[in-house]
Amino acid sequence: MAESILFLTGHLARARLEAVLSGMKAPFDWKVLDIGVKVAALMTEDIILRRLQKPVEADKIMLPGRCRADIDRLSSNFGVPFLRGPDELKDLPAYFGRASRASDMTRYDIQIFAEIVDASALSVDDIVKRAQAYAQRGANVIDLGCLPDTPFPYLEETIGTLKEKGYKVSVDSADPDELKRGGKAGADYLLSLNEETVHIADQVASVPVLIPKEHGDMASLYRAMDALDAKGRSYLVDPVLDPINFGFMRSLERYAEVRRKRPDAEILWAPAISPS
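Above: the chain sequence. Below: its structure as tokens.
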């Protein structure tokens, strides 16, 4: 007869735990018991002693890895060996010597932008090497970050080289001339246009990414969106995600506001650089 193991967990982890156990084709019989707490790691020894009924119909009982209950005391009390599992549910198959089910990282409907923040300070060869590394790690778009007051005379050459190698490219600059140059050189996206520079979109085929004219000025963002909507142009909206401790919660509110007011708008989740 196969060994039976009872897994104790909480409300939030129960469904995922059952899915992991089912997927790993365990060589033992198992049951999952929600002990009555929301977060499994908050399960205490006293809670288990009060809520786990005797006799326990299992050969072993498995606790979550972050549950710090005294397993020796529990084993003695219930007459069944208690075990402490791994901290993370995803590591449970390996704990039992089974191969984890490979994650399918190919099915998603977003574009992942990877920014080379100092592109204008690098050579074309260095940019290509960085792009290759980013693409291998899942990037869909290589974003060329243009530094303030730093000339980028080979911007067009860089875009052309990346496009020849099959990459999608975006140009991120506060300089309207660099944005025009990037668009005319074949960049797929331009970061970032506001209501005063949105006219650049009329001169290039690149998809513009729109930001407020002044930080947090949502009215100006909506005006820029309206201008492109009237022309039937596609765009992405970037209300600007601030770093933690620098207005992060307010920036989340801006994203939520855009989603409520413009539910069909494509949104770019891009963090601002934290002030030094």
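The first helix runs from residue 11 to 23.
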